[in-house]
Recover the amino acids of this structure.
């Protein structure tokens, strides 16, 4: 008898919560199976390894982001610079809601995993890098539009987009360290002051 797709969903949801709330290394397959109430055989039917599960967790979270608050924040119906404000607000409310429930900020799953595994697992590092590149592209598109409409002076939109993503990830990390989502509200608006100038070629 084949395990049902619902079994895979339970494994994925359990792993996502545990990886986000604790860490990748700290969570084992045995614990995931126990909490999800599935036998190990069913786990390995869907995920040949813990690494494969982590890849699926990253995809699952990235899909939620892409069709959730990231899509709302970068709605092209919003003026370009308002999208940056929306993104900061969304990050704040996401972290605050988690703290209200759990008593602590979880931070960004992608950032947490990147800090933990990037020097030890090239497969997961590449997967996370692809997620960050897609996120950076949303900033890039927004900045291109802001420059085209005159809302911002010309700048290196590609490099500035990466700097903005790095800034937001850093702010979330600092807020997590302080266990205080208000840090995101306090520091986040500075994202709009970031700019990397265009390089003038001789």
């Amino acid at each position: 008898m084949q395990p049902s797709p619902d079994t895979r969903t339970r494994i994925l949801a359990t792993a996502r919560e545990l990886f986000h709330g604790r860490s990748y290394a700290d969570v084992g397959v045995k614990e995931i199976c126990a909490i999800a109430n599935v036998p190990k055989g069913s786990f390995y039917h869907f995920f040949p390894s813990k690494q494969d599960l982590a890849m699926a967790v990253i995809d699952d979270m990235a899909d939620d982001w892409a069709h959730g608050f990231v899509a709302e924040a970068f709605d092209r119906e919003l003026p370009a610079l308002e999208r940056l404000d929306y993104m900061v607000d969304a990050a704040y409310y996401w972290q605050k809601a988690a703290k209200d429930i759990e008593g602590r900020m979880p931070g960004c799953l992608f950032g947490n995993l990147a800090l933990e595994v990037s020097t030890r697992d090239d497969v997961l590092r590449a997967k996370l890098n692809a997620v960050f590149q897609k996120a950076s592209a949303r900033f890039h598109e927004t900045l291109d539009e802001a420059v085209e409409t005159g809302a911002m002076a010309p700048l290196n939109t590609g490099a500035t987009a990466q700097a903005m993503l790095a800034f937001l990830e850093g702010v979330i990390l600092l807020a997590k360290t302080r266990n205080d989502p208000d840090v995101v509200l306090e520091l986040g608006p500075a994202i709009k002051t970031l700019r990397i100038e265009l390089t003038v070629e001789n």
About this structure: The two ends are 69 Å apart (CA to CA). The mean pLDDT is 93.
